[in-house]
Design a protein that fits this description.
This protein is an alpha/beta fold. The chain has helices spanning 2-7, 26-36, 82-85, 94-104, 121-124, 168-175, and strands at residues 44-52, 55-62, 68-73, 89-90, 110-117, 131-135, 141-144, 154-162, 221-222. It binds flavin-adenine dinucleotide.
Length: 223
């Protein structure tokens, strides 16, 4: 597993390492939006795609008002994920439909959960600054924040799970599970003195399991 995890980021479907823009990755999307907003209609749910002579017709519903409209165009570029394309009423050719369905089967169900820790135990106790720990537990990975180094609190991705064995219901159950039950937790402080605060809007505290082992440095595997 160690060899595979060390090479994980080099896979062809992985984004090459890039700098993080100030404000987080969606700052890129927001910057594009500021320049192109006159071409963009938000809250427009496409409900049907039809071929129309040499062009196409798109039927869409304004999700705010419920109003249904159609647009005709020479070409339509569809960028919704393949599993979603099949759920939109369409008259794609049987060959294209088959390709869409085959592609849709490749998407694995995935779960990512995050929580806010009351202190940055991965930095203070383990000397970890950003990056990812791989584990052999169900949580698979722990991600550490790349910003706010030596700050007071921090938000971690406490579990990132993807598997074709996971059904959607299992994914949803995982996503709803308190993260503190599953993540490796702080090592040197007794768990009950420094519980991570769940970032679920409830203000609830959860106690991490005392027997959990410490986090590893990026690239190392935790057992
Ligand atoms: C849990 C999880 C964790 C992930 N983690 C990472 C990660 O850490 N790093 C990484 O690089 N990738 C990650 N990915 C993958 C990444 O999110 C996707 O590869 C990427 O977002 C795909 O971009 P996209 O534009 O193809 O689709 P999307 O980002 O899904 O965009 C599709 C858009 O189509 C819209 N849409 C859907 N149906 C309709 C409709 N009928 N009409 C109009 N619009 C519609 C949706 O609202 C959405 O805005 C993760 C994915 C998941 C699910």
């Amino acid at each position: 597993m160690l060899r595979w995890t060390m090479l994980f980021g080099e896979g062809y479907e992985q984004q090459a390492t890039i700098m993080e823009p100030t404000g987080g990755m969606d700052a890129v999307a927001h910057a594009f939006y500021r320049r192109t907003r006159r071409f963009i209609t938000l809250d427009a749910q496409v409900t049907a795609l039809r071929r129309l002579g040499s062009g196409a017709r798109v039927t869409w519903r304004d999700r705010a008002t419920g109003r249904v409209s159609t647009w005709d165009a020479d070409h339509v570029i569809v960028t919704v994920p393949l599993p979603v394309v099949s759920s939109i009423d369409n008259d794609l050719s049987p060959k294209v439909k088959a390709a869409v369905e085959a592609g849709a089967r490749v998407y694995p169900p995935a779960v990512k959960t995050a929580f806010q820790a009351q202190r940055r135990w991965w930095e203070q106790d383990h000397g970890i600054y950003g990056g990812i720990s791989w584990t052999t537990r169900d949580i698979t990975q722990v991600w550490y924040p790349s910003a706010g180094i030596h700050g007071r609190k921090g938000i971690l991705v406490g579990a990132y799970i993807w598997s074709h064995d996971l059904g959607r219901s299992v994914s949803v159950a995982w996503a709803n599970m308190p993260c503190a039950r599953t993540h490796p937790g702080p090592r040197r402080r007794p768990a009950h003195r420094d519980p991570p605060r769940l970032n679920r809007g409830t203000g609830a505290y959860a106690r991490p399991e005392r027997h959990l082992k410490p986090a590893t440095k990026a690239g190392q595997v935790m057992r």
